[in-house]
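Task: sequence design from structure.
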């Protein structure tokens, strides 16, 4: 397997792992109406986690992969804003 193919696979795995960790914590509390305010807390936690992950990647010289962290952080900010201000669930 070539190096470029291996890097593409590793990047795909990183994206899948980030997606599988971030989405359930943002969706499940609201979907099941079990303390829907937890969605806001989870979104803020996801933003903090993605900022720390971006700093970690930059420190290791992996600046090319922080785009994934930025995208997930933005999605979490939108989820927090949406559930807190735009369409809160009571």
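Answer:
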């Amino acid at each position: 397997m070539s190096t470029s193919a291996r890097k593409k696979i590793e990047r795909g795995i990183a994206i899948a792992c980030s997606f599988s960790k971030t989405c359930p914590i943002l969706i499940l509390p609201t979907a099941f109406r079990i303390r829907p305010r937890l969605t806001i807390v989870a979104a803020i936690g996801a933003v903090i986690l993605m900022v720390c992950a971006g700093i970690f990647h930059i420190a290791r010289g992996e600046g090319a992969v922080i785009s994934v962290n930025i995208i997930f952080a933005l999605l979490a900010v939108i989820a927090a804003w949406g559930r807190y201000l735009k369409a809160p669930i009571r």
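The chain is about 80% helix and 0% strand.
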